[in-house]
Amino acid sequence: MSDLNKLIIFDTTLRDGEQSPGASMTRDEKIRIAKALEKMRVDVIEAGFPIASPGDFEAVQGVARTIKNSTVCGLARALEKDIDRAGEALKEASSGRIHTFIATSPIHMEQKLRMTPDQVVEQAVSAVKRARRFTDDVEFSAEDAGRSDIDFLCRIFEQVIEAGATTINVPDTVGYNLPGQFGNTIRLLMERIPNADRAIFSVHCHNDLGLAVANSLAAVANGARQVECTINGLGERAGNAALEEIVMAVRTRRDQFQCDTGLDTTQIVHCSRMVSGITGFPVQPNKAIVGANAFAHEAGIHQDGVLKSRETYEIMRAEDVGWSRNRMVLGKHSGRNAFRVRLQELGMQFESEEELNDAFRRFKELADKKHEIFDDDLQALVNDAGFSAENERIKLVSLRVCSETGETPEATVVLTLDGSEQADTATGGGPVDATFRAIESIVQTGSRLELYSVNAITSGTDAQGEVTVRVQKGGRIVNGQGADTDIVIASAKAYVNAFNKLLQKEEREHPQQPSV
Ligand code: KIV
Ligand code: ZN
Q1: Are residues 269 and 185 in the same domain?
Q2: What is the CATH number of the domain that holds 478?
Q3: What CA–CA distance (Å, rounded) separates 188 from 433?
Q4: Cα of 256 vs its chain's centroid, Å
Q5: Is residue 113 part of a domain?
């Protein structure tokens, strides 16, 4: 593929994706996701916003140290302190990029920055120059470009390219644009900026009107050669363009695009599930590419057609994006090696023998309760191990629930809280309610439950239930997930998982709010 035909995939799940309320990730979770993205051959991984907090800095640094085959990027406002912090976090990266930005729309310049256009250009140019002290790979974004004046964009982009920016990103920050209009903007910018050929043009679209993917594709059709996107379309508000949709649209409709990505698309479903598991954001069943129904043919006429010739109703092959046939893979008598090999086939790897042993122990426990273990069960099991790996101040020791017709359900929960065992009993409207009350009465977070959802991972009454909860305290939102064949236990695990996240207090700065 020549450079002109290569579409660079810039994944911002770990940065913009993390800006979804409740989607915060720990350093180790970010490293796990980054490894999966690297395996999928994502070109650039935006790992975070290093100045935001010590935790964010360590996460970017950890990803930069670990990843060898993708470029690792850190976000920085057009401020010296941000750029220096990003440069420091990326010091050990095999290939590091600093992504600096400043707002360019009249409303942002006047109301948020309280700066004149001239001051904005000056600050952008000095930010790019400063970033070039750390790396040759510098990206500049004009925040809210989608509502900015095109003449001003031409002016600022020309000057930052002159100052050394190698990627020019055009974000539709508030998801306001329409495909025809946005594609046109990209074409005009590339035609009118005299030194446009010295930079890659990139887009970053938000999904407020459900147009993030359509706008990104319109930009690609008009010459953009980098798309910023996230797994499952995670991101601020309605999210960003979904990586899986961009990649598969460009690949499936090669006839319409003069470019392609270098991604290993068979890793898509695995990455989607990992991100969903870690963040606690479930994937809707009818979500394109990665939803449970994306390749399911319900209507008899469709099934008949697909059996005769797949192309009658399928434009992509499920295997090409990593859907397995969900066959029964292992059972009670399967050994450790068979377990490890199947997980490797599914794209899951363990850091250490200890992690493998722990997952294998969980597998044996599950196999005792459930005869047939499917690929989806294995994925949930690995996610479940990930949930409890790090910074776990609370651990679920045991749970006993009494639920009887005509009686008030009662739950007794035993937890360890910072190593010391504590128990409590509570009653509630149902067994889950009683369990949650007992957990809260031990941990006393003072939080409010905002969302509770259960999803059966496979079919059958012995299926594992995957529970997602969202809790809120003082404006801070966290999600938790847990899986088990017993949905009350799965619920307890999810609640404890959310509380563990809530207890990791860290003040973070939001990149798009003014600095204090
Ligand atoms: O949406 C946006 O404008 C951003 C920038 C920081 C690129 O996320
Ligand atoms: Zn964004």
Answers
A1: yes
A2: 3.30.160.270
A3: 57
A4: 28
A5: yes
Ligand nearest to C-alpha 168: 1
- Compute the distance between CA of residue 58 and CA of residue 48 in angstroms, rounded to an integer: 10
- Spell out which residues line ligand 1, taking CB within 6 angstroms: 16, 101, 141, 143, 171, 173, 204, 206, 511
Best mutation site among 14, 77, 97, 101 for ligand 1 pocket (most ligand atoms within 8 Å of CB): 101
**Residue 384's pLDDT band (boundaries 50, 70, 90)?**
low
Distance CA 78, CA 89 (A): 16
The β-bridge relationship of strands 226-229 and 138-143 is: unpaired
pLDDT tens digit string along 77-125? 999 999 999 999 999 999 999 999 999 999 999 999 999 999 999 999 9
The closest residue, in CA terms, to atom 1 on ligand 1 is 173
Q: What percent of the chain is predicted at pLDDT more than 70?
A: 93
Task: Examine the fold and report which residue of 356, 387, 418 is the final residue of a domain before the chain moves on.
Answer: 387
- Taking only Cα atoms into account, the Rg of the chain, rounded to an integer number of angstroms, comes to 24
Are 37 and 18 in a shared domain? yes
Average pLDDT, the chain: 91
139 contacts 172 by C-beta, under 8 angstroms: no
Evaluate whether residue 510 is within a structural domain.
Answer: no
Residue pair 339/348 in contact by the 8 Å Cβ criterion? no
Say if residue 246 is in the same domain as residue 365.
no
Shared-domain flag, residues 161 and 42: yes
Range of the domain at 134: 3-279
- Which residues place a Cβ less than 5 A from the ion ligand 2? 16
Longest C-alpha distance within the chain, in Å?
Answer: 78
Amino acid identity, residue 42?
Answer: V
What is the pLDDT confidence band of residue 334, given thresholds at 50, 70 and 90? confident
**Total domains, the chain:** 3
pLDDT confidence of residue 319: 92
Of the given ranges (50-64, 84-98, 331-345, 488-502), which has the lowest mean pLDDT?
Answer: 331-345
**In this structure, are 112 and 197 located in the same domain?**
yes
Over residues 306-331, the mean pLDDT reads: 78
**Of 206, 203, 238, 239, which is closest to residue 221 (Cα–Cα)?**
203
How big is the CA angle at 249 (ends 316 and 157), to the nearest 5 degrees?
165
Q: Which of 408, 416, 455 is nearest to 434 (CA)?
A: 408
